[in-house]
Inverse folding.
């Protein structure tokens, strides 16, 4: 059946900010959908609040809206764009829920928008456990015994039938948030209560436990003629009880007989039919009892998912791309398999290698959080590895994770280790390997973990001789969907080890440039870096060279074989990368776009004689070595906060006095603000050192591990004077070694001390004078030239008591590059890449003058999204250590509106009525009444602590004084807990007295109440609220309108125009 | 990877090192590959693999051991197994024996640690050919001599080798009696017929039409099996005497023999169809099924063409009235099935009984029994 001609414009929803359970995989699927639908000649309208995505690049859609994924903005967009259809299956749970809401509110009906991919009934059937259970029963499929409860009493009533342990799963939450395993009555009450809270529809599903059964997933695709194929089977090595997102998984399944596997296949097909997903991909999860061969359906997701991205990368079968074509009417047999170029997509990939996926955790960033794994997902990213055998793939995946600190287990006794296995934790496999290396045998491990003995036997071999599986020669083989039955046209490679190397790499005459990716997503190094790598690949291709990507993150766009000319799915260790370089012989390697991961390899690569493009290793070192960088600043006449370095407790305590408290302390070896703390006194420092120095001491032991080559021989502690209540500024700039071009200056909303990655920021700066901006520009120019940057540099400043301090300069693409690019309408990463390929800034026809693109016309605000709600027990204070998983962008003609949009997109929309609590530091008191006045005029009740209350009352604004925490209950936090506060303005008062502020902030996050920590933010919020009340729902703007659509912008910037062709090999 | 103790040698001299596992012996025959990711035991016990050495493209083979119920016949028919990473696990839930121990018990040699992907790519380019696996101690010259002594697959009658010596009856349902010309039938075909209430009697493939018809079966089934259909004129003759008198149905080799009975030619595919993921389109319903495949020969279309350009159910005249193509392989567009329009009869080239493989086509057994009932 041909493509549908009755629809012209298709609306695609993204998944919003990166959060645990919804990461880059939805950028990958969204980008694929945009590409194919436009190739098919449809007009594509895209909405996503996440600026760090490739899909929100203007050239990927006809109209791109970086707006909150909420019914309000969506209604406006639908009203303007009048799409004929909405494709909701590519933006994760967020998109599904939003589509459902738009239908429930009658908006889709009102504007005649058809849901394609999955219709309303299919979505509700899969998501509503009640309906789903019924559908499965009708199809004769079994599920665990279960009950649905909307109150604790209902839950209690069901328990006797289900028994303990009992699995509690809230309806409609991401990655099982708010659920868990209740082993005791107490736990049951707690978790069930929490689950009902967490569920948007106040509903939990109580499941009979099948803990320890095997967990399997099948990726199913169906076309509208009811042809169904299974793309891939995935076996979770971790049995039922550990969320699939946190499990180490293998594709294809390893332990089921063909007979049993075919039953799963039959049932998966029955499920997709029963739920009624007309076209596209679904993920079906099973529990299998290996002894009795019982099979139970756990759930199905009627959309592309984390697992479908994994399945696509694991097999070479691009699920999202094909789902998009199916959604517009094609049949599987009408779509050709990109990889073979001759066979149709109506087949089941068969593979002749093994794929292992490892989750990447971040517990170290959430002190106090319980590091155990359960039914709700806690990992922040994943790495995938392909090998010819399970042990090759498993070992490659292990090293792909790039752990900051490997767990230390040597000192533990066998018994301690065995006990540790009883509850799954992030480092359980290290524990298992340690035990098996000690010859404990697989039986005791199996008893405690229920992991299938086949895997344990394999792990035992790895434990005893890690090198055994890498005997022979590295041999690059292709991922071809068909186990070599047909020649592969698409160059997607992995390294296996064989007796003799038999490389399948086919390399044309064109010179190639290799781009090293960012590896698994983690806090501090997320999708932004993949965005930059993808832009680098586009640019390299436009320059007439072959773009080669090396990366091991299955979620990303960079590991889509469409993105590069050759994709090598390999770990980002020096050894593995050199392996690729040996066969690829690139003209140059780019290490600047993948965050710290490739940067750490730079020195090793140069040692091995590999040509790097852009900023030299020497320059990187100059910027990263505190001492050398300090000297450079002195020479240039700029100021860093007073600092010192120390290698011992005594030295540190002594130096601390010289530098002066408060101090910001951190070990030298860490990244992303790891283990950074602010200490106010000798005691505080001594305590910190006692915790961190031991950790520092065992750094050098890790140099065996290539990724830690840079680790200093002696552990060092950095002591910086902590600048309080300083305004922080981020700058992204381009430099070609001769000239500097400032991409954007961002003013943080939170004060310095909150990691740049966690604080909201504004472009253009909302409260910096032209004179200060000029200072910042000058400093950035001098530093970039002084360091010798060729490409991108990110500089961070703190403005303290009117003076400019340099915090750091990173000679690489930064987290903010995508945000700035979207704010100013220029692709910074591409421009940087052109510079690295030899062009001069002068040749880039950049708008002259300063970073003024778009100024005056619109304001962009970036807000961070934090995962505290996922880590029970974790302290949700913001600090110099980054904790956010993702970000959103708000764009509007004025700052208040942009700010309000960002808040809404980040999940804490500003209230339009209610009660505001205000408490500000003395220096802010003069200005505070402004906030109060606006809020009062707009009908808010004002609460304030004594000092602030006086300041406000004095100006004649009615206000109610309430207690500080110190003044006893009912105090401010009680008010918040009671849900009587809708908005908080709280600017931290200097040292010591912080605690109140932090407490307030914590309970605010816990209750999702917007909390503004600077007066300017407070004023902005107040104005935004006033504006919203006056004008109602703010207007929506497409990026094409802001910066001129792909067409028109290509006149302004030839780059953007050309990339249109550069983005998909199909176009060529 | 431990030291090489055995090697694969092809008649064109291509050699791959590996480790000997299972029986300590050599084996020669046609070296073929199957792309199924599970079902190794079903494959080696499938009579259609007689005379062949199976290369498994999936690296890990033996993961779940072996068990009686996965047998596709009484014994192992494949001459050897060529693997990347063999595994001898007895502790799997359903395992009655370890895979490699079992092969050894049955005196079947096997080799592991082979770069099977490189081997498969070679076969894909050069075509399936004779070859063998040999212990390291055996010289390449000796090995080549053994390979040369092996008859090539074209023109080879292997049905005689796998067919039973005397008649056996299966199932005691009160359904129809189905007489099978047993050129090497798989247990799961018999099982699927018996499960649907049929009684199945298996005849030696040399049985004459008279003998067969004398027992007055309700239908005749022409089985799958090994070897070259062109070498089985005697079965084709038998079939020609039955078509029109009894409803007939065939699978795989049976499909090829029935096609020959209808005047179509067969030819050898470069490296065959062996796996569990080939899409086959039903030309009547337009539905695409994922099929289990295991054949080295195929049928030329009515016009003598190797591939069917269009999805039309082409018709042609036969001695038994009009016939029409019913199925096409969407991978290489070869013939996958036909149906007789004037007398009850038809066949498919692929394996609806699965064993191993997907169940998409099981409904064909129902259709067959309906046809019998209707006849
Ligand atoms: N009845 C059960 N018994 C034991 N574990 C379960 C049960 N149901 C679910 N789980 C575990 O919880 C995890 C999450 O459940 P799932 O239904 O997949 O929710 P989500 O929508 O978060 O993926 C599963 O991956 C599985 O490991
Ligand atoms: N001297 C200082 N005074 C106040 N805040 C600081 C100081 N140095 C760093 N910070 C804060 O700590 C955060 C992290 O420090 P930074 O040097 O940028 O580490 P990272 O390499 O993790 O970005 C900064 O974003 C800033 O908010
Ligand atoms: Mg799930
Ligand atoms: Mg920083």
């Amino acid at each position: 059946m041909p493509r549908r001609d009755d629809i012209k414009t298709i609306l695609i929803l993204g998944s919003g900010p990166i959060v645990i359970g919804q990461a880059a995989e939805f950028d990958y699927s969204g980008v694929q959908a945009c590409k194919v639908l436009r190739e098919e000649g449809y007009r594509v309208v895209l909405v996503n609040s996440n600026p760090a995505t490739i899909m929100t690049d203007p050239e990927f859609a006809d109209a791109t809206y970086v707006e909150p994924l909420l019914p309000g903005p969506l209604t406006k967009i639908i009203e303007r764009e009048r799409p004929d259809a909405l494709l909701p299956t590519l933006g994760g749970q967020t998109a599904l829920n939003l589509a459902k809401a738009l239908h429930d509110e009658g908006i889709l009906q009102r504007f005649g928008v058809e849901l394609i991919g999955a219709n309303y009934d299919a979505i509700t059937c899969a998501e509503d456990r009640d309906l789903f259970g019924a559908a499965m029963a009708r199809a004769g499929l079994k599920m665990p015994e279960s009950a649905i409860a909307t109150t604790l009493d209902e839950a209690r009533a069901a328990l006797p039938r289900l028994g303990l342990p009992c699995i509690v799963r809230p309806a409609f939450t991401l990655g099982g948030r708010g659920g868990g395993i209740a082993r005791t009555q107490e736990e049951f009450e707690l978790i069930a209560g929490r689950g009902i809270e967490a569920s948007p529809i106040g509903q939990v599903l109580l499941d009979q436990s099948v803990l320890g059964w095997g967990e399997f997933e099948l990726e199913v695709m169906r076309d509208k003629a009811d042809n169904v194929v299974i793309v891939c089977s995935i076996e979770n090595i971790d049995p039922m009880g550990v969320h699939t997102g946190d499990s180490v998984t293998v594709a294809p399944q390893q332990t089921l007989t063909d007979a049993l596997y075919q039953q799963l296949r039959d049932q998966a097909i029955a499920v997709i039919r029963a739920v009624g997903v007309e076209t596209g991909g679904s993920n079906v999860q099973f529990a299998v009892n290996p002894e009795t061969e019982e099979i139970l359906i756990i759930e199905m997701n009627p959309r592309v998912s984390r697992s479908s991205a994994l399945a696509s990368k694991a097999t070479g079968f691009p699920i999202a791309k094909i789902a998009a074509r199916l959604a517009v009417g094609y049949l599987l047999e009408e779509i050709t398999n990109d990889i073979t170029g001759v066979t149709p997509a109506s087949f089941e990939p068969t593979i002749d290698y093994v794929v292992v996926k490892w989750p990447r955790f971040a517990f170290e960033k959430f002190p106090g959080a319980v590091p155990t794994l359960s039914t709700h997902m806690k990992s922040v990213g994943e790495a995938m590895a392909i090998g010819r055998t399970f042990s090759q793939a498993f070992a490659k995946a292990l090293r792909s994770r790039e752990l900051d600190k490997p767990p230390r287990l040597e000192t533990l006794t066998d018994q301690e280790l065995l006990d540790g296995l009883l509850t799954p934790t992030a480092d359980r496999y290290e524990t298992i390997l340690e035990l098996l290396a000690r010859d404990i045998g697989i039986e005791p491990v199996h008893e405690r973990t229920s992991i299938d003995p086949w895997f344990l036997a394999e792990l035992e071999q790895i434990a005893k001789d890690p090198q055994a599986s890498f005997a022979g020669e590295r041999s690059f083989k292709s991922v071809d969907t068909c186990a070599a039955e047909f020649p592969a046209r698409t160059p997607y490679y992995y390294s296996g080890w064989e007796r003799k190397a038999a490389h399948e790499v086919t390399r044309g005459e064109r010179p190639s440039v290799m781009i090293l990716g960012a590896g698994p997503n983690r806090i501090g190094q997320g999708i932004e870096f993949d965005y930059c790598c993808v832009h680098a690949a586009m640019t390299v291709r436009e320059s007439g060279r072959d773009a080669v990507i090396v990366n091991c993150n299955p979620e990303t766009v960079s590991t889509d074989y469409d993105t590069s000319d050759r994709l090598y799915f390999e770990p980002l260790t020096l050894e593995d990368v050199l392996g690729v370089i040996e066969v690829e012989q690139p003209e140059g390697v780019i290490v600047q776009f993948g965050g710290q991961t490739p940067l750490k390899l730079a020195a090793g690569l140069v040692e091995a004689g590999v040509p790097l493009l852009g900023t030299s290793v020497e320059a990187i070192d100059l910027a990263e070595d505190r001492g050398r960088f300090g000297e450079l600043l002195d020479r240039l006449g700029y100021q860093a906060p007073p600092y010192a370095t120390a290698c011992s407790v005594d030295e540190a305590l002594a130096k601390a006095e010289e530098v002066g408290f408060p101090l910001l302390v951190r070990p030298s070896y860490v990244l992303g603000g790891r283990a950074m703390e602010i200490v106010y006194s000798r005691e505080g420092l001594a305590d910190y050192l006692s915790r961190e120095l031991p950790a520092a001491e065992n750094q050098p032991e890790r140099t065996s591990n290539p990724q830690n080559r840079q680790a200093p021989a002696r552990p060092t502690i950095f002591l910086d004077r902590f600048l309080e209540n300083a305004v922080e500024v981020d700058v992204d700039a381009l430099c070609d070694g001769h000239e500097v071009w400032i991409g954007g200056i961002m003013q943080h909303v939170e004060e310095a001390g909150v990691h740049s990655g966690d604080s909201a920021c504004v472009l253009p700066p909302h409260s910096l004078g032209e004179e200060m901006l000029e200072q910042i520009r000058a400093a950035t120019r001098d530093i970039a030239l002084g360091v010798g940057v060729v490409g991108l540099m990110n500089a961070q400043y703190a403005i303290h008591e009117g003076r400019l301090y340099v915090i750091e300069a990173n000679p690489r693409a930064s987290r903010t590059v995508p945000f700035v690019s979207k704010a100013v309408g220029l692709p910074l990463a591409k421009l940087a890449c052109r510079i690295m390929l030899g062009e001069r800034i002068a040749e880039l026809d950049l708008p002259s003058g300063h970073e003024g693109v778009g100024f005056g016309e619109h304001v962009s605000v970036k807000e961070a999204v934090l995962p505290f709600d996922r880590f029970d027990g974790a302290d949700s204070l913001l600090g110099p250590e980054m904790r956010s998983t993702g970000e959103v962008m708000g764009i509007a003609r004025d700052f208040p509106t942009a700010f309000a949009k960002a808040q809404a997109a980040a999940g804490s929309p500003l209230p339009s009525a209610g009660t505001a609590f205000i408490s500000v530091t003395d220096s802010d008191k003069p200005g505070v009444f402004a906030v109060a006045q606006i809020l009062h005029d707009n009908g808010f009740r004002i609460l304030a602590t004594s000092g602030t209350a006086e300041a406000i009352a004095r100006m004649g604004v009615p206000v109610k004084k309430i207690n500080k925490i110190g003044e006893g209950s009912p105090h401010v936090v009680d008010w918040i807990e009671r849900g009587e506060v809708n908005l908080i303005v709280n600017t931290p008062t200097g040292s010591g007295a912080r605690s109140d502020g932090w407490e307030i902030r914590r309970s605010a996050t816990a209750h999702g109440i917007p909390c503004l920590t600077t007066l300017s933010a407070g004023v902005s919020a107040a104005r935004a609220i006033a504006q919203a009340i006056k004008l109602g729902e703010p207007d929506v703007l497409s990026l094409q309108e802001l910066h001129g659509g792909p067409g028109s912008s290509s006149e302004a910037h030839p780059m953007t125009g050309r990339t249109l062709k550069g983005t998909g090999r199909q176009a060529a | 990877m431990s030291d090489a103790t055995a090697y694969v040698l092809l008649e064109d001299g291509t050699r791959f090192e590996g480790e000997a596992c299972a029986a300590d012996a050599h084996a020669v025959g046609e070296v073929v590959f199957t792309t199924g990711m599970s079902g190794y035991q079903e494959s080696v016990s499938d009579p259609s693999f007689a005379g062949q050495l199976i290369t498994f493209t999936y690296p890990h083979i033996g993961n779940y051991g072996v068990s009686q119920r996965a047998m596709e016949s009484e014994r192992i028919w494949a001459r050897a197994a060529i693997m990347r990473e063999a595994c001898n696990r007895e502790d799997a839930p359903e395992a009655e024996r370890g895979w490699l121990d079992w092969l050894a018990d049955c005196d079947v040699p096997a080799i592991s640690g082979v770069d099977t992907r490189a081997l498969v790519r070679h076969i894909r380019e050069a075509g399936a050919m004779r070859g063998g696996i040999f212990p390291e101690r055996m010289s390449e010259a000796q090995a080549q001599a053994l390979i040369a002594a092996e008859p090539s697959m074209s023109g080879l009658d292997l049905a005689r080798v796998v067919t039973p010596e005397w008649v056996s009856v299966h199932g005691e349902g009160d359904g129809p009696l189905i007489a099978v010309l047993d050129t090497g039938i798989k247990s799961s075909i018999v099982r699927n017929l018996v499960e649907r209430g049929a009684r199945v009697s298996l005849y030696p493939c040399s049985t004459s039409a008279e003998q067969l018809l004398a027992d007055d079966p309700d239908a005749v089934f022409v089985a799958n099996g090994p070897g070259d259909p062109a070498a089985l004129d005697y079965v084709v003759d038998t079939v020609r005497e039955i078509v029109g008198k009894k409803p007939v149905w065939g699978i795989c080799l049976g499909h090829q023999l029935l096609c020959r009975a209808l005047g179509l030619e067969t030819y050898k595919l470069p490296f065959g169809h062996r796996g569990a993921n080939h899409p086959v389109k039903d030309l009547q319903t337009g539905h695409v099924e994922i099929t289990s495949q295991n054949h080295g020969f195929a049928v030329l279309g009515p016009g003598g063409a190797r591939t069917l350009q269009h999805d039309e159910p082409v018709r042609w005249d036969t001695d038994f009235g009009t016939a029409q193509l019913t199925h096409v392989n969407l991978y290489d567009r070869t013939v996958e099935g036909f149906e007789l329009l004037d007398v009850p009869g038809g066949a498919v080239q692929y394996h609806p009984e699965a064993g191993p493989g997907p169940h998409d086509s099981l409904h064909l057994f129902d259709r067959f029994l309906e046809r019998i009932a209707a006849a």
